[in-house]
Amino acid sequence: MLRQYELVDLVKSYDPNADEDALNKAYVFAMKKHGAQLRTSGDPYYSHPVEVAGILTKFKLDSTSIVAGLLHDTVEDTDTSIDEIKKLFGDQVAQIVDGLTKLAMIEQKSANNKQAENFRKLLLAMSEDIRVLLIKLADRLHNMRTLHFCAADKRSRIAKETLDIYAPLAERIGMQAVKTELEEIAFRELHKDAYDSIKARLSFLREQGSNLVPQIISQLEKDMAENGIKADISGREKSPYSIWRKMQQKNASFEQLSDIMAFRIIVDDVAACYQALGVVHSKYHMVPRRFKDYISTPKPNGYKSIHTGIIGPENTRVEIQIRTHEMHEVNEKGVAAHWAYKQGERVVGKNFRWIRELLEILEQASNPEEFLENTKLEMYNDQVFCFTPKGDLIGLPINSTPVDFAYAVHSSVGDTCVGAKINGEIRPLRTMLQNGDQVEILTSKAQHPSPEWDRFVITGKAKAAIRRYVRAHKRDQFITLGQQLLERTFKGESLDFNEKAMVNILPNFEAESIDDIYAKVGEGLVTAWDVLKAVYPGYKQSKIGKVVKSFISKSPRKDKSKSEPLKIKGLVPGMAVHFAGCCHPLPGDRIVGIVTTGKGVAVHTIDCKLLEKFASEPERWLDISWGDAIDDAPHVGRLKLMLANEPGSLGDLSNLVARNNGNICNLNIVNRTVSYFELLVDVEVKDLKHLTDIIAALKASKVVSYVSRSMQ
After folding, report:
1. Which one of 97, 174, 304, 541 has the fewest beta carbons within 10 angstroms of its own beta carbon?
2. Is 76 a catalytic residue?
């Protein structure tokens, strides 16, 4: 553990104007407040904030950050108040400590969604002051270094959270060394066998080629010197976690990876970078698709370097990274390398585009879990770079689409997107973008986000915006339906229905407005009778029953076979039921019921892929089956087929379905080529056998080259 004078000397070594008095006072204050508290390891608790402060000195942060690091646990774990911190150490330190304390309090109090709430709070705090994130990363790094002292279940939870949230955050602000160490410790904890295996292979390679790295470095130094390039060259192995992740992504074995060894050529200026690249490519064979120029198109976190794969000296496949000394400093230390706290100036998180985008997702998410899901998507590596018609560069995750591009430009552009031109040609909105594509988004004020977009967009920002619109649109429909149901119910009882009475019962239904009650009734969360009885508490249930019976008897009767719902065994009488749109179950399929909030029971086929989501919630599963009395009501089956792109083919398709007593109720062109259409077709049928007969008829048609039942 660092002693008091050692910590002060470290800070003053890179910041001669550091506030020495504040550092000394904070060190002593933390020791006194934490007193005899002990960590799980048995060490004095105050050793933790001191170590966190020591990590922050390696980032060369200002004295305010170091003081906040020393004090970050005092309000949470001792009798210290924020007002006391503010009085002794100033507003900035108090604000940072307050942000970090709120995170810890959430982690303790929340049981179900603490990870999501914790991250939500972290985002808000770091948007006001990015130093909150830096101190939190240092705090997490020291906790990970001492993870082995914790219980096994706690170790797994902390390691997973680190991989999911803190390592990507460290990468987002360019702190490569912190990211790598967090990943390594978490990987070792979560996948120890894989970690040990890769470490053993790396050790074997090191023994086999003990002189290989120095030989390659020596040859590269000679190559640079012969061409008058002054360069510092070093070699390193990729980390076990980065090797394992690449093996997973590429479904490749250890031996198939070509860049387990990487060499850095560090030069004085940008011109020398490209000169060095020319020397490397002229002397050694380049490995195809292994060249990336992050100098001309930097990563969103500011990372700049040229990467290329070659068959290098000693006939070895290696990766070469070429950068300047300044780039290397920024690449390793990220935001801390170009710290801008001068004369009281603060770097707020909102200065970073990616944080602004996460804040937008925060505003649009319906719940903490959805926010966490979308922000995880947003934090992964950007790998596709596309241009606007004006030449602006937009970085997106791989497999992104024009809709993702539109939302990356601006939320309003995404909301009104109707089409896209890629490199001057109109292309479908689900087209995957490639590096270097020029994308022009076509918009219309009459357009709104389509629920279908959520199936193919990649970025968290796009998903959050689309889901927000869909929720709002559904809510409007629920409000209209709920109001109609209430008006009809009150009118049928000859009771007065007015908004004044509705205002008085808002607390009964935890509603903030009358629309909230309408929406709950329309969605089925509350019945119209519940609302009626809340407005007229003395209303007799028996009278309601008589009126309902009378109302039903006055209703126009339909054919019994068409009015009775399809009977399903295993349901509680009166329970709401609907058929899942993901797998379109039909009479004859093996089925299972899933209890859903506000919607009753969803009926799925037994092999529906969506059921995996509920594997850990057995209490929501119902053992159900089709009843013996099957009615004639139509059910929707979905077909996936390839149809010849020629005149009359769609007509032939519809005629074939109609001749087999089916009815096409929806048709979607998924893909189109010169020769074929790929279609998803929804057909109304009686049961599974009926759908099977239609498939057989379609297979016999000359215009249909492929047809099968679709479960999507």
Report:
1. 541
2. yes
